[in-house]
Automatic annotation (TrEMBL):
Catalytic activity, EC: 2.5.1.15
Reaction equation(s) it catalyzes: (7,8-dihydropterin-6-yl)methyl diphosphate + 4-aminobenzoate = 7,8-dihydropteroate + diphosphate
Protein name: dihydropteroate synthase
Cofactor: Mg(2+)
Pathway(s) this gene product operates in, as recorded in its UniProt entry: Cofactor biosynthesis; tetrahydrofolate biosynthesis; 7,8-dihydrofolate from 2-amino-4-hydroxy-6-hydroxymethyl-7,8-dihydropteridine diphosphate and 4-aminobenzoate: step 1/2
GO terms of molecular function: dihydropteroate synthase activity
Chain ranges of the Pterin-binding domain: 1-253
Keyword terms: Folate biosynthesis, Magnesium, Metal-binding, Transferase
Isomerase is among the record's keywords: no
InterPro entries: DHP_synth-like, DHP_synth_dom, Dihydropteroate_synth-like_sf, Pterin-binding_dom
Pfam families linked: Pterin_bind
Length: 265
């Protein structure tokens, strides 16, 4: 899953793809590099970020869905607003990636109705909200607590008529977690696959990697991001959400060839 942030303030690439033309060029580059899914985000969820007005998010996201819906790759929309979910699905989006785990009023209804079809749904765990999530996050047991949350939200979607084939789970690395919390979740990733559902991991360039590297800024965390992606897939991740598509594809091709002991296939 390649990240396409059409935002001026995302933590790693804010402002780089904020214009329609720049975003389109970046999407085309990711397709050429072997991306499987394009994740379009119109609102930054970095720690401390403020909520974006609905109209502004729609203005950023919908034009990208409309221009990319025939690109041959599934389009994911990174949003927690039910109105954006409905509009994006109507415009041709294939997946809703919700950092709030479909907890906003109307979110479950937006993705479970007839109009949502069989669009994929990514349920993410976040403690508190982006404004406060990194203020001394605490857990009794981070793996158990995150797993319990993902199970509860999955059950809510199932009760609304959503079938398991549509659901992917995301532990929410960096969303209300310390570096130690994130590393424990990654190490115990198989436990988070509630009922065998696929797991998405988003660690690309995040501050936990910067902490491992002694405080390096986001642009200098590419090698660590590749290592984290390989660690995630080795532990069962079905999707890795990344900034650096070509490098991640290369790293995973190498891992896969070593695992299979052959280059073919």
């Amino acid at each position: 899953m390649g990240i396409l942030n059409v935002t001026p303030d995302s933590f790693s690439d804010g402002g780089q793809h904020a214009s329609r033309d720049a975003a389109l060029r970046h999407a085309e580059r990711m397709i050429a590099e072997g991306v499987d899914i394009i994740d379009i985000g119109g609102e930054s969820s970095r720690p401390g970020s403020a909520a974006l007005p609905l109209a502004q998010e729609l203005e950023r996201v919908l034009p990208m869905v409309e221009v990319l819906r025939d690109c041959g790759k599934p389009l994911s929309i990174d949003t927690y607003k039910p109105e954006v979910m409905r509009a994006a699905l109507a415009a041709g989006a294939d997946l809703i990636n919700d950092i709030w785990g479909f907890r906003m009023p109307g979110a479950v209804e937006a993705v479970s109705g007839v109009d949502a079809g069989q669009a994929g749904l990514c349920v993410m765990h976040m403690q508190r909200d982006p404004q406060t999530m990194q203020e001394q996050p605490r857990y009794d047991d981070v793996v158990r607590d995150v797993t319990d949350f993902l199970r509860e939200r999955t059950d809510v979607l199932r009760a609304a008529g959503v079938n398991d084939a549509r659901i992917t789970l995301d532990p929410g690395f960096g969303f209300g977690k310390t570096p130690d919390h994130n590393l424990r979740l990654l190490g115990q990733l198989p436990q988070l696959a509630v009922d065998g559902l696929p797991v998405l991991v988003g660690l690309s360039r995040k501050s936990t990697l910067g902490a491992i590297l002694g405080g390096r800024p986001a642009p200098q965390r590419v090698a660590a991001s590749l290592a984290a992606a390989v660690c995630a897939v080795e532990r069962g991740a079905y999707i890795v959400r990344v900034h650096d598509v070509e490098q991640t594809v290369d790293a995973l091709k190498t891992w896969w060839a070593v695992r299979r002991e052959t280059i073919a296939g």
